[in-house]
Write a structure and sequence with these properties.
- The complex is a heterodimer.
- By secondary structure, chain A is of the alpha+beta class.
- Helices cover 45% and strands 12% of the residues of chain A.
- Chain A is built from 19 helices and 10 strands.
- Chain B is globular and about 70 Å long.
- Chain B has 14 helices and no strands.
- Chain B is mainly α.
- Chain B starts with 6 loop residues before the first helix and ends in a 6-residue tail after the last helix.
- Classes of the chains: A alpha+beta, B mainly alpha.
- The A-B interface holds A 26, 28, 30-33, 36, 39, 55-61, 63, 66-67, 70-71, 73-74, 76-79, 190, 237, 239, 245-247, 249-251, 253-254, 263, 265, 269, 274 and B 38-40, 43-45, 64-65, 123-124, 127-128, 131, 136-137, 215-216, 219-220, 223, 227, 230-240.
- Chain A: Keywords: Signal.
- Chain A: Its main location: periplasm.
- Chain A: Residues 1-22 form the signal peptide.
- Chain A: Belongs to the bacterial solute-binding protein 1 family.
Chain lengths: 437, 275
């Protein structure tokens, strides 16, 4: 009797334990400020979803990309939600590595129609959404209105590169340590490799022609790179070839740059507590050359579900929460409206409170809407992506060719040498990958 | 009789040694210094040597991560793999040092050759094997992998130390009736203790700092301090001060261990160097 009671008790305890076992959703993410905020607010999700526990794996971008690629290619099932970029989504979706977010698309409460169309398009294949955008960005011109005024200039809403060149040289004051313009020169497909191809788009160039032939030997690339090298030489900070996003952010915050063409999300850093020029900031669209394309790029960090996961439903619940309108309100309540993840929902830009709190909001959404990932250049292209080509080979090519361009900025190579070498590298890689003969 | 060294040469060598030492230590010193700067100060140009120190980055790092969980995983994986490797390596090195065959050198070279292959070449096969056995993101899986990765170096080091021990001493113990395990435990190991200690310490350091496998084969459960460091690198925003603070916290335990055991390390590494 005693033994049977004990057995029944043990079985009941086990059954209770088993039913109380929560599903664990493991999320692989990079460590951007917005992701740190999401992690900090995750209690809100677990409270409303008591059956789901969250585990976070935070890695640097390159390690994360390598780590999740290994896992997803082998269907390892280590991650249930992956935070991936606009570059991976079309490639992985086409390979069947991502679960389509069909339920989310059809969920009225989620309101997928509210997603900014250019953002949703970049994350969809054959009309199916494969990743939900967490925040989106383009590029725009950040500038110091006090220095522009002091130089006797008026910044147009859509400046040309010619105007930017003149303004940069006029505002440069080496004695006071003010550089007319700061631009990225650090090699890497996500560093110089983001800014320069977007700039080339505005000069009428493209990465590949319709037959996948690299275009670095074309006159548009020469004109754009020569302009980039010259403007940094005449009006840029010393050592521009080693300046990336973080370095220029620090320079600008310390009052050493008059203009900076870079990510729209930089605006919150330039107006934040660390900035000495927060009250002097103004913004304009990314520059153009009058050909119909600006140097605006497009990027979005997204949440996606890998095909190997056993927790698809719980993962989808989490994604719905993290990319919902309610999440935006949650962040606004805790951190203020200026800090909400930007660029993904149309309704955010109809919210006057947000528009008042974030003076750069309208330009951000205008830039994102103008960036067309399917038609990034004046000429036709065979790839998706504005400042990159969404093919698996692009990271390798982008990293290698930007080393050549960075050398041209540093002055150790001529523009002609850098472009010729870039053309050789890209042609070799594209031939090896079977795109061209 | 020791050769007389002039004062000038002594001063010269001392200055050279200090210069090299300072050069080698500077990156670590700079990392530690950067951890006490603000994010803007961390990438200021020109670099700041004098500044008002702040613990802001350490506060952020501790708030954002479960440091102790990463430390425990590092201790278990580095310690476990090193001990397991010693258990396998000591008999292996003994057999090769005291009972060699004509293929012993080939075996030693073959073992070393496994270290010449880039790890990424075997990432997918190993990943699939661990997945099949349910060992992905487990401490057990990592202990086994790290043991196998460091085994060639451990066997080579122990083999070198064992070779310095006269085989006659082991033969004498056998004459006195010692069986094999007693010969190894009571005669060989005490004599080779400095060598074993330095092998253990060196491999503990190697396993602690290993990043490729610990990053690629773990997710949340078995993640070590290498993932802790990696998590503070950000593609956007400023992160160098937090990254430096995290790196200082990650190398702290192993630096303390190295500091206290430097005598054993040097003794072991120079064991048999003078004949």
């Amino acid at each position: 009797m005693k033994l049977s009671s004990m057995l029944i008790g043990a079985c009941s305890a086990f059954a209770l334990f088993a039913t109380a076992q929560a599903e664990t959703v493991t999320i692989a993410t990079v460590n951007n400020g917005d992701m740190v905020t999401m992690k900090g607010l995750a209690d809100d999700f677990t409270k409303s979803h008591p059956g789901i526990e969250l585990e976070w794996v935070v890695l640097d971008e390159n390690t994360l990309r390598q780590r999740v690629t290994t896992d997803i290619a082998t269907k390892g099932g280590q991650f249930d939600v992956m935070i991936i970029g606009a570059y991976e989504v079309p490639i992985w979706a086409n390979r069947g590595w991502l679960v389509p977010l069909t339920k989310l698309q059809e969920d009225e409460a989620y309101d997928a129609n509210d997603l900014v169309p250019s953002v949703a398009d970049a994350l969809s294949v054959d009309g199916k959404l494969y990743a939900a955008p967490f925040y989106a960005e383009s590029s725009m011109l950040h500038y110091r209105k006090d220095l522009v005024e002091a130089a006797g200039l008026t910044m147009p809403n859509a400046p040309t590169w010619e105007f930017i060149g003149e303004a940069a040289r006029k505002m440069t004051d080496r004695e006071k340590g003010i550089n007319g313009i700061c631009l990225r020169g650090l090699p890497g497909w996500g560093q110089l490799g983001a800014v320069l191809p977007a700039t080339v788009n505005s000069f009428g160039g493209r990465l590949f022609d319709e037959d996948w032939n690299p275009q670095f030997d074309q006159p548009e690339w020469h004109e754009a790179l020569q302009f980039y090298v010259d403007i940094l030489k005449d009006a840029g900070p010393a050592g521009s070839s080693s300046n990336g996003y973080a370095e220029i952010m620090a320079l600008f915050q310390q009052g050493k740059c008059a203009m900076w063409m870079d990510a729209t999300v930089a605006a919150s850093g330039l107006t934040g507590a660390d900035s000495t020029v927060a009250d002097k900031m103004a913004w304009a669209l990314a520059p153009n050359t009058g050909l119909g394309k600006t140097a605006g790029w497009f990027w979005t960090w997204t949440l996606a579900i890998p095909a190997g996961t056993a927790q698809q439903d719980a993962a989808a619940e989490f994604i719905a929460w993290a990319t919902s309108k309610e999440y935006t309100k949650l962040v606004a309540g805790v951190k203020g409206w200026a800090q909400v993840p930007p660029g993904t929902r149309t309704s955010l830009y109809e919210n006057q409170t947000y528009l008042d709190a974030a003076p750069f909001a309208q330009l951000t959404i205008d830039s994102i809407r103008a960036a067309d990932a399917n038609n990034p250049s004046v000429k036709p292209v065979p790839y998706t992506g504005v400042q990159f080509a969404a093919i698996p080979e692009w990271i390798g090519i982008g990293d290698s060719i930007t080393q050549q361009f960075s050398a041209a900025i540093a002055g150790t190579k001529t523009v002609e040498e850098a472009l010729a070498e870039a053309q050789n590298i890209a042609t070799r890689e594209m031939r090896a990958a079977g795109y061209i003969d | 009789m020791a050769r007389k060294v002039s004062i000038g040469r002594k001063v010269g060598f001392t200055a050279l040694a200090w210069t090299l030492g300072c050069l080698m230590f500077f990156p670590i010193f700079w990392m530690m210094l950067t951890g006490f700067k603000t994010e803007v100060g961390a990438i200021a140009s020109p670099p700041q040597f004098f500044f008002t120190p702040t613990l802001e980055s350490y506060k952020d790092v501790i708030e954002q991560s479960n440091y102790m969980r990463f430390v425990m995983n590092s201790i278990i994986i580095a310690g476990g793999s090193t001990l397991l490797a010693l258990v396998v390596a000591i008999p292996s090195a003994w057999s090769m040092a005291f009972s060699p065959t004509k293929h012993t050198k080939d075996v030693l070279m073959w073992m070393l050759s496994t270290k010449m292959m880039p790890p990424v070449g075997v990432l997918v096969p190993l990943y699939l094997m661990l997945q099949y056995f349910g060992l992905l993101d487990t401490r057990t899986g990592l202990v086994i992998i790290m043991m196998l990765i460091n085994l060639p170096i451990i066997i080579w080091m122990l083999f070198t130390y064992f070779k310095e021990i006269p085989s006659e001493i082991l033969e004498a113990s056998r004459m006195d009736g010692a069986v094999l395990w007693k010969e190894i435990v009571y005669v060989l190991l005490p004599m080779a203790l400095p060598g074993i200690a330095s092998t253990l310490l060196l491999n503990l350091i190697l396993a602690w700092n290993e990043s490729f496998w610990t990053l690629n084969l773990t997710a949340s459960n078995a993640a070590t301090l290498t993932q802790f460091i990696s998590s503070f690198s950000s593609p956007q925003g400023l992160f160098f001060a937090k990254l430096s603070a995290a790196s200082t916290m990650a190398i702290g335990p192993i630096m303390v261990l190295g500091w206290f055991s430097q005598k054993q390390l040097v003794t072991g590494l120079t064991f048999g160097a003078v004949k």
